[in-house]
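Narrative of accomplishments. A recurring question from our advisory board has been how the design workflow behaves on a single, concrete structure rather than in aggregate. To address it, we present the structure tokens for one chain from the evaluation set, followed by the sequence designed for it. No filtering or post-editing was applied between the two.
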């Protein structure tokens, strides 16, 4: 039976959109754009981001392109849930944005699913790979669950090819496979690289 528009509108919404790729691919710009479109449509939109090491400050509220969107910093899934559920009690929330899901604890995945099941549109971003080009946690599990997945590419900072890898550089050299994720003195940086220019020393 073909549903008419009225019956369709009575049904609840709810789905997950994942915006993924390497660093410098414009994930945050795309995230902000999508949230803004819902805000223009008078939907209640709320956004969260993880509180992370200051070295990642380039990826906070301001994206690389400088568009601003107020988003609430949280330390964990529990804290995000507390703040969001309080907001939901206050008023209906239609759209939830969560930036950088790879930096959350693993409970975020089940909560994202729960929100979508409750009729909320959840738009998330996350790196698909770490500096070793291995799948990043949370993003690897959201990928099969999301209704929509967009994988964005960057431009290789060495040769101009399409880049889908994040090159980590420590003290001016490509990072070693075994280098710790967090450096105490923090002298590391990142570049978008293509498959030909990406370098990793396997120890
Ligand atoms: Zn290249």
């Amino acid at each position: 039976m073909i549903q008419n528009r009225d019956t369709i509108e009575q049904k609840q919404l709810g789905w997950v959109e994942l915006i993924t790729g390497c660093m410098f691919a414009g994930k945050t710009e795309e995230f902000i754009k999508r949230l803004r479109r819902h805000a223009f449509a008078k939907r209640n939109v709320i956004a969260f981001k993880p509180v992370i090491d200051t070295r990642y400050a380039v990826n906070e509220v301001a994206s690389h392109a400088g568009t601003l969107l107020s988003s609430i910093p949280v330390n964990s899934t529990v804290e995000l849930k507390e703040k969001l559920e309080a907001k939901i009690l206050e008023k209906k929330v239609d759209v939830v944005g969560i930036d950088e899901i790879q930096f959350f604890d693993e409970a975020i995945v089940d909560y994202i699913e729960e929100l979508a099941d409750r009729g909320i549109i959840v738009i998330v971003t996350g790196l698909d790979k770490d500096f070793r080009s291995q799948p990043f946690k949370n993003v690897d599990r959201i990928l099969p669950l999301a209704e929509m997945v967009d994988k964005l590419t960057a431009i290789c900072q060495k040769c101009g090819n399409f880049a889908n890898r994040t090159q980590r550089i420590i003290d001016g050299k490509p990072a070693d496979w075994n280098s710790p994720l967090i450096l105490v003195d923090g002298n590391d940086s990142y570049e978008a690289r293509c498959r030909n220019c990406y370098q990793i020393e396997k120890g």
